C-alpha cells in the first residue's frame, strides 16, 4: 500500500494496545480502535492520553466517549492459561491480533504499541515504542482495554475475595503476595510467573 494512501485524511487507522502484562492474575487484554485519520485529533481534544495517567473515573468517562466516536472497536484477551502456555509476549500479541481481526471493519493501517509486530497479520502495521504516550489512537485503545480489564477483575474479586483484587487489579502488591502464601493459587493466577508462594 502506497505512502500516498497513508497520507490521505480518510484512511482508516486502528490503534492497538494491551494492558495487564505485568499482572500475576487474570488475562492480558487488548483493544483495537478504528478512526479516520482526520478524526484522530478529536481524541486529544476530549482528553485522551496514556491510561496510566488517568483516574479510574476519568478512564470510564473517556471509554464511553471513545466508543461513541470510533468507527469500530473490539476488545479481546488471552487467558492466564494461554499466557502460561505461550509466554506473556506471545499471549499479548495474540490478544492484539484477536482484537484486530474481530473488528467489524478492516483498517488500512494498524498502529501497534511497543516494538513487536503482530505475527501473521495481513493488514499493514507500524510499531510505536511508547505509543500510548505519543499516539492518541493507541492511548484510546489502552483506555478501552484498561476499563474492560479492571471491570472484569472487580467481578472476579467477588469470587476470589482473599487476594484484594478490587484494589490491586491482579498486580503483585504485598497484600496479594501474602494472600498467595496463605491461600495458594486460584484458577486465574499465572503459574508461569514467579509467584513466590513458598511459606
Description:
The chain is of the alpha/beta class. It has a single domain (3-154), classed as 2-Layer Sandwich (Nucleotidyltransferase, domain 5), CATH 3.30.420.10. The chain is 44% helix and 17% strand. The chain has 9 helices and 5 strands. The chain has a 5-stranded mixed β-sheet with strand order 3-2-1-4-5, with helices on both faces. The longest helix has 24 residues, at 136-159. The protein is globular. It catalyses: Endonucleolytic cleavage to 5'-phosphomonoester. Residues 11-199 form the RNase H type-2 domain. Endonuclease that specifically degrades the RNA of RNA-DNA hybrids. Keywords: Cytoplasm, Endonuclease, Hydrolase, Manganese, Metal-binding, Nuclease. Pfam families: RNase_HII.
Topology:
Blueprint: H1 3-6, E1 12-19, E2 28-36, H2 40-45, H3 56-69, E3 72-78, H4 80-86, H5 88-101, E4 109-113, E5 125-128, H6 131-134, H7 136-159, H8 165-168, H9 174-183
Parallel strand pairs: 1-4, 4-5
Antiparallel strand pairs: 1-2, 2-3
